[in-house]
Amino acid sequence: MLRYWTAGESHGKALLALVDGFPAGVEIETESIDFELRRRQGGYGRGGRQRIETDQVELRSGIWHNQTLGSPIALEVINKDAKLERLDDLSRPRPGHGDLTGAIKFLGPIRGILERASARETAARVAAGALAKQLLKPFGIVAFGYVVELGGIEIIPQPGTLEEQRALRERSEIYSLNPDQDDAVKALIDAKGKEGDTLGGILEIRVEGLPFGLGTHAQWDRKLDGRLAQAVMAVQAIKGVEIGMGFRAARLPGSQVHDPIHFDAAQKNSPNLGYTRPTNNAGGLEAGMTNGQPLVIRAAKKPISTLRKALESVNLDSKQPESANYERSDVCAVPAASVILENVVAFEIACALIDKFGGDSLAEMQARWKLFHEMARER
Ligand SMILES: Cc1cc2nc3c(=O)[nH]c(=O)nc-3n(C[C@H](O)[C@H](O)[C@H](O)COP(=O)(O)O)c2cc1C
Questions:
Q1: CA 330 to chain centroid
Q2: Nearest-atom index, ligand 1, CA of 329
Q3: What is the rounded CA–CA span in Å between residue 295 and residue 283?
Q4: C-beta of 117 in contact with ligand 1 (< 6 A)
Q5: How does residue 123 score in pLDDT terms, banded at 50, 70 and 90?
Q6: What is the mean pLDDT of residues 326-340?
């Protein structure tokens, strides 16, 4: 069983991830993890914090000569802005943050809540997800995330191969698949930033190269749709998750929703084993299992809740009305959220891959992958 936990505060000494159950014999490239960490820090609309930090991962355990050992892997991302001991508490909770509820629940300072609730924690989640991607790589499984809507502007992805779309996303400061729309989106972010306001958006994550049968129909807590939804929803500021056609499916008749099944013997050796679908409205999942089609997940991210034009709040000491505290903040972190989701989704896929193909070593998993595909082609 693969799993991970994170630790660390936004302005503490470091963010940490402890990954347990990672198979032995996987080649680890630190640069690939750092690449994802850098992408998480970028995207148009981020605040001053990202100019201070240059996130890099330190692999503290579980690796020998760049290969995993099968033992727990500790990952560390050092905070340059490690000023927690010098920071004061807040007294005017920000609507949309955990400030009010956390201070009451834990009978303590708002600072103690916001430092952990902060999305700085996702540096650790991205590091764990980027590690998981290195297990997916030998199986040809690729997770790919991008922005499809920002502040109400729909961004139409340009079609292309995965490589072409990756190049488009690299060119886009919004991390979308249509850099031609960047100027309009950037202008909106600038305008809202000047007004002291913030913006949210919609992200799409696709996973290609998946085999049949990750996840299971048999027990609720091992259904892959449920696991993915939890991993995605548990990212800060994510307020909605859809798989495939999602909410739109509720408004259409079945004949326009479900993906017909065809067979093309020429594709027998690809992950779909020859079973093709003219549409992919199910988003690659049926009955909690991958069905050989690409996985497609969408998520809605709410706008940042720390507004320069602060919202109405109450001073917790005097109980008098006052505007909420303002702390240095992003105007828009939708592009960064696409990186976080890509990596948390990759981690869940790695978990499901290990559940299906065993997890002691990469070599054993590859042998079982091969055997399963041989048997499934004969089914
Ligand atoms: C990449 C990313 C960056 C974020 N940056 C900020 C920020 O600068 N200021 C802020 O108030 N909230 C920010 N958030 C959102 C808060 O962390 C989040 O709204 C808060 O912890 C409350 O949790 P909830 O929105 O999930 O209910 C960010 C979220 C993400 C995903």
A1: 18
A2: 8
A3: 5
A4: yes
A5: very high
A6: 94
Give yes or no for residue 208 having a pLDDT over 90: yes
Half-sphere exposure (Cβ direction) of 114: Cα atoms closer than 13 Å: 25
Architecture of domain 3-378: 4-Layer Sandwich (3.60)
Banded pLDDT at 254 (limits 50, 70, 90): very high
Instruction: Give the closest residue (by CA) to ligand 1 atom 25.
Output: 237
pLDDT for res 79: 94
* 97 Cα to the center of ligand 1, angstroms: 8
**pLDDT given at position 98:** 97
236 lines ligand 1 (CB under 6 A): yes
Full-model pTM: 0.97
Model pLDDT, residue 223: 98
39 lines ligand 1 (CB under 6 A): no
- Report how far ligand 1's centroid is from the alpha carbon of 49 (Å): 13
Domain extent listing, the chain: 3-378
pLDDT above 90 as % of the chain: 95
CA separation for the pair 353, 26 (Å, rounded)? 14
Residue 232: count other Cβ atoms within 10 Å of its Cβ. 24
Region 135-149: mean pLDDT is 98
Query: Ligand 1 in contact with 199 (CB < 6 A)?
Result: no
